[in-house]
Write a structure and sequence with these properties.
Chain lengths: 260, 432
């Protein structure tokens, strides 16, 4: 796997087209790391000139802000902004809707203004530009796929169509859950819930959502967020359907369909 | 006639007195809130107000209640024109004073009013059935205790009674028109003409009493209702407009910045040398006066429809959190503080606070910040803003966040990730 760091490129006097913001899940979580790699494969295959921050990257601070710790959030944010501004970063692509939302909507008022694109939109652009060509014989053709809307893409940023257009490019049979788009049910991880046990209730949110996804009869549950990935995968496991139904990120689906 | 005029003016003054008192109390309660940054431009705000409040855009996500609600809404707007005539007639001692001015159009108008009165009446009957017989779940969830349920039913029943009074009055009036020149000819009124046969054989003197009774009943009912509205959840009929106007224009994922923290963090990092002047104040919100005045106005704008709660993932899976309850609690707290202040009581210093005495940590800790409640609200109320402010207080003033969150904070401070991994391993994924 090759992924140049921004420090390396800068040392060579080169400027990448995009900075791929990997995020904490994409860097440390084993399942999410596979998504990171799939996306890097796509970037390499499409000859996109990109860089990552490597060890210079730090958490955007999203979970700290949402858990109420504004000091910690701003410490993280301002440090990140200094690094990004130091390199003169203009365009950021990330596979995490939480990083996407925070950098895009919350960094500007702290001094960090960039063009921020979520990988679902970026993949859609690559498809539209003809840089990703999907053959008629790709393994997802005609397969039933359902898409789980991430709150931080959908309601938070009104991105509902880009992920679906990516799936349509696979020529898959896209089936919708009852609660989708603006009424899509959260996976249960947002607002820093990812980092604690849920409060007392009669059901786990991710199980409720997994049941809804399974009810569509889809064999693939497509997600576009590392937290949704964890929650949906666990939900499907709870229902003991992990052998028949796979939870996959958009980048993995595209990489797989291209045989990368 | 003179007696009726004096009585009317007295009733009018009494109503104005009570409404004014309530408006002042609500205004002073809302003014407890902090300044609110109203970003964005006025055109976008006006657009929101016209589309969402005036145009009811978000109501139409649920088509059946939307149509029924539209009848009541249009009925309210249009029938208020008739109330204007009632008031002028009441003061001047006249009868249907607008009729000669409007000529045949008056009859058209009266028919429109009657159509709306019938539509309102039927819609209210449907709504009562939905609430009490079909028992739509969102009207029966935990925070819908006796009073909120009674409040809703009282409003619906009052509207039915008021509409019945209008139709009865018009029916009696139509019979009187054929007997006494005092009663201006309005032409046949479609809906009330169905009631005319009931009064056809009634003596003129009894009819006059019926007509007068219905007239007085209707106008006193309207005034009484206007006073009641200020105590009830029904204030949305006015506050929906400013509430949508002042609603957040940023993407929903954006959480309000705390400039006071930015200044401190920047000076800690040596990025800013300006000395911070004065007390930074409380971080986050413990009580209503720590929220912005727009948050507080939103609490008075809430009509407790529960669309937020029925979309909330935490609530749907049995957690204690209900976004509607967040708004109801904020309002209850404001009412308590407002009443206490108005009577020279302790006000905010009564030993209670919004957090803990009204809203528990268990509730705010259950929120996934998914914005389903914000998306669902037909008048653009944002319960999430209040939840985040309460969490900010707990995290920064009390260090009282859940233990697992405190660990997450610690991880982020030491390894720049929410999990306990070494920062030096961040780029290891490239090697595997």
């Amino acid at each position: 796997m090759t992924a140049p760091t921004l420090a390396e490129l800068t040392a060579k006097g080169e400027t990448p087209e995009i900075l791929f913001w990997v995020g904490c899940a994409g860097s440390f979580d084993d399942r999410a790391k596979r998504v990171t790699k799939a996306f890097v494969k796509i970037l390499n295959a499409t000859h996109t000139k990109f860089a990552v921050l490597g060890n210079e990257e730090a958490c955007t601070g999203d979970p700290a802000r949402r858990a109420g710790n504004e000091f910690l959030f701003q410490m993280q944010a301002i440090n990140n902004i200094q690094i990004l501004n130091g390199y003169g970063v203009k365009k950021i692509v990330t596979a995490c809707p939480h990083c996407f939302n925070t950098i895009k909507n919350e960094y500007p008022e702290l001094g960090g203004t960039y063009e921020v694109i979520h990988h679902s939109t970026y993949l859609q652009q690559l498809i539209n530009q003809g840089k990703i060509k999907l053959t008629d014989t790709n393994s997802f053709k005609g397969k039933k796929i359902t898409y789980h809307d991430s709150c931080y893409l959908g309601r938070a940023n009104n991105i509902y169509e880009a992920p679906r257009e990516v799936l349509q490019a696979l020529d898959a049979d896209l089936v919708e859950m009852k609660r989708c788009r603006t009424t899509g049910l959260c996976c249960g991880a947002g607002g820093a819930q990812m980092f604690k046990e849920p409060e007392k209730g009669n059901k786990d949110i991710n199980v409720d959502r997994a049941e809804e996804a399974l009810a569509t009869g889809a064999t693939t549950v497509a997600v576009a967020c590392p937290f949704c990935m964890t929650m949906m995968t666990d939900g499907v496991k709870t229902k003991e359907k992990e052998a028949e139904v796979k939870v996959k990120d958009l980048a993995e689906l595209i990489a797989e369909a291209q045989g990368l | 006639m003179m007696v009726q005029q004096i009585a009317f003016v007295l009733v009018l003054i009494t109503a104005i007195y009570f409404i004014r008192k309530r408006i002042l109390l609500i205004r002073s309660a809302i003014r407890l809130g902090k300044e609110s940054e109203t970003g964005g431009n006025k055109t976008d705000r006006l657009k929101n107000m016209l589309l969402v409040a005036f145009g009811q855009k978000k109501m139409f996500k649920k088509i059946i209640p939307a149509i029924l609600h539209l009848f009541i809404y249009v009925g309210f707007l249009v029938i208020n024109l008739e109330v204007m005539e009632f008031v002028v007639d009441g003061i001047a001692g006249t009868h249907r004073i607008f009729a000669p001015w409007l000529g045949s159009f008056y009859s058209v108008l009266m028919n429109v009013f009657e159509f709306l009165a019938v539509a309102v009446l039927l819609a209210c009957v449907f709504f009562l059935i939905r609430r009490n017989i079909l028992k739509v779940p969102r009207f029966w969830s935990a925070e819908m205790t006796n009073w909120p349920r009674m409040d809703a039913n009282l409003i619906l029943v009052t509207e039915i009674v008021l509409m019945t009074a209008i139709l009865t009055m018009n029916a009696a009036d139509q019979v009187l028109q054929t007997r006494d020149s005092h009663y201006v000819a309005t032409g046949s009124l479609f809906f009330s003409s169905f009631l005319v046969p009931i009064f056809q054989n009634t003596s003129t003197s009894v009819l006059i009493v019926i007509e007068r009774f219905a007239w007085w009943f209707h106008i006193i009912g309207i005034f009484g209702f206007a006073v009641y509205v200020t105590y009830s959840k029904h204030l949305h009929i006015f506050l929906a407009f400013p509430n949508t106007y002042f609603a957040n224009l940023e993407p929903k994922g954006h959480i309000k910045n705390m400039p006071v923290v930015t200044r401190e963090v920047k000076s800690m990092l040596g990025l800013e040398t300006t000395t911070t002047t004065g007390d930074p104040g409380r971080f986050g919100a413990k009580d209503v006066n720590d929220l912005t005045w727009t948050n507080l106005m939103a609490a008075f704008s809430c009509t407790e429809c529960g669309r937020c709660t029925s979309e909330c993932p935490a609530n749907q899976t049995g957690k204690k959190l209900s976004p509607r309850k967040i708004m109801m609690d904020t309002r209850d707290r404001l009412e308590a503080v407002g009443k206490s202040m108005a009577t020279g009581g302790a006000g905010l210093n009564d030993g209670k606070t919004l957090l803990n005495d009204y809203i528990s940590k268990e509730e705010i800790n259950a929120c996934t910040s998914c914005n389903a409640c914000v998306e669902a609200c037909p008048v653009m109320i944002n319960p999430l803003e209040i939840i985040i402010e309460l969490r900010r207080y707990v995290a920064m003033e009390e260090s009282g966040s859940p233990a697992q969150w405190n660990s997450m904070f610690q991880n982020m401070e030491t390894s720049f990730a929410p999990w306990k991994f070494s920062a030096a391993d961040r780029f290891n994924w490239v090697k595997d």
